[in-house]
Amino acid sequence: MTTKAEWPETIYLIPDTGENGETTWCDDPAPSVEDDLKNAIAYRRLDLLPAWQPIETAPHDRPVVVYAPAYDGLPAIVGITQFHPDAWFYIDEIRDVTLWLELPK
Questions:
Q1: According to the model, what pLDDT value does residue 14 have?
Q2: Which pLDDT value is given to residue 1?
Q3: Nearest to 36 by CA among 17, 10, 21
Q4: Which residues pair with 64 in a beta bridge?
């Protein structure tokens, strides 16, 4: 068993690998020469991401990742948006954005 310190910072989901379209998880975005880097979907470890901040503290000059909690039977949603003076941090017509964090680099 590995310790948390040994876990990779990023793992990749690579769709349609192999003869039967299997999906592969690994710490290399292109583990073989047949794999195309643009197909890899990166997932960062949550414990390495910055903490969520109240939306009132979000910058108004660049896009940010935002969170809106579940509401009226709809699930919570995470998305990317940017401040607009007429719409605040808009994500949809029903849910209010409550938290933000910087876009991953």
A1: 83
A2: 55
A3: 17
A4: 81
Q: Is 37 helix (H, G, I), strand (E, B) or coil?
A: helix
Of 37 and 73, the one with more pLDDT = 73
Cβ–Cβ < 8 Å for 91, 68: yes
Q: Would you state the structure tokens that stand for residue 65, as one six-digit string?
A: 């990742």
Beta partners for residue 10, in sequence order: 44
Phi then psi dihedrals of residue 48, to 5 deg: -100, -10
Residues 10 and 42: beta-carbon distance below 8 Å = yes
**Residue 29 CB neighbours (<10 A):** 18
Using the structure block, give the residue that is written with the tokens 């605040």: 88
Cα distances (angstroms) measured from residue 50 to each of 1, 46, 66, 96, 102: 26, 8, 13, 21, 8
What's the pLDDT score for residue 30? 72
pLDDT of residue 35: 63
Q: Token pair of 12, please?
A: 């990749």
Q: How far is CA 93 from CA 52, 73, 97, in A?
A: 22, 14, 11
